[in-house]
Amino acid sequence: MNKKITLAIVLLIGSITFCNAQKYLKAIDQSTNLLNVEKHQDIKSYKWLNKPQNHTFSDKKLIIEAGENTDYFNNPETNKISSNAPFLYNEVEGDFVATVLIKPDLSSVWNACGVMVYFDSLNWIKFEFENSDATGNSIVSVVTKELSDDSNGAVLNKIDHVWLRVTRKEDVYSMFYSNDGVDYKMARLVSMKGHEKVYFGLEAQCPASAAKEHSFLYYSLEKRTIGNIRTGV
């Protein structure tokens, strides 16, 4: 191959990589990051359901160690209820837009972290980046109305982190994912009626492995109403 062509390809790849990195960095707005505990005290009012043995707030992020065999899943086949995964939450009333950047330990099947909308033990939504037994590293959502479903979405085997966004507009919850924190794609939407106040927060799990650490690199929660439930705008 001509040396000039080779050099041009290298420069193009470098340019694309730089642009993607700049886009990624731009998406992390530390002024709105609730995990930046030096600037935001709101996160200190959050409570634990199943407090983990170890968790750390440092360098504007949260690391949660999910214990062995921890999960949220109301099994539709056996009716067994698993509800022992760490969940850091706060009560939220009305419409909202929540965004997280996560980097789970995906070394074992079903390992995951993400966000939950929790009403009670029989009604909740879980939206995560998970090592699925069916599709590998994937966007996974679980909607529970007494029993849980299990929906595997986009397969993301080439990245180790992802942005997730959950919006509420009245009784409709929309779920989105993004590789760069700028361009979001809808993964799912669902209606959950009869709950003005909900518990919303961060969840981490290791359903079939020893304890692992999952990282939350960014978390924001805005009290606002979106216009379009399918685009999140």
From TrEMBL:
<protein>
    <submittedName>
        <fullName>DUF1349 domain-containing protein</fullName>
    </submittedName>
</protein>
<dbReference type="GO" id="GO:0005975">
    <property type="term" value="P:carbohydrate metabolic process"/>
</dbReference>
<dbReference type="Pfam" id="PF07081">
    <property type="entry name" value="DUF1349"/>
</dbReference>
<dbReference type="InterPro" id="IPR009784">
    <property type="entry name" value="DUF1349"/>
</dbReference>
<dbReference type="InterPro" id="IPR013320">
    <property type="entry name" value="ConA-like_dom_sf"/>
</dbReference>
<keyword id="KW-0732">Signal</keyword>
<feature type="signal peptide">
    <location>
        <begin position="1"/>
        <end position="21"/>
    </location>
</feature>
<dbReference type="GO" id="GO:0004553">
    <property type="term" value="F:hydrolase activity, hydrolyzing O-glycosyl compounds"/>
</dbReference>
